[in-house]
Amino acid sequence: MVRLKIHRQTSHSIETWGAPPTGTRSSIYSYHLQFAFTNAPLGEFINLSPDAASIQPYFGGLFPDEPLPKDGKITLEPEGLKLRWGG
Description:
- Helix content is 28%, strand content 5%.
- The chain has a domain at 2-43.
- The model has no long low-confidence stretch (mean pLDDT 76).
- A two-stranded parallel sheet has the order 1-2.
- The protein is mostly helical.
- The relative contact order is 0.14.
- The chain has helices at 2-16, 28-36, and strands at 22-23, 42-43.
- It has 2 helices and 2 strands; from the N terminus they run αβαβ.
């Protein structure tokens, strides 16, 4: 709850300067901010692929349905992410 309050305060503070808030963590952390705050139209995606040219899941196989950017956009499913347990 405290983090949400901090995000709200930060988001509002940034807007007073006329800039859109941007999630500064990559993948699902940044996506959460974008969907939780409709005034955050941008999100960061750190490309960790070995060739630096392809988009691969940020968390490897931990989330088998991890959303990846396609044409610069992401889509989150209403039921959220599945977590792969074990190997």
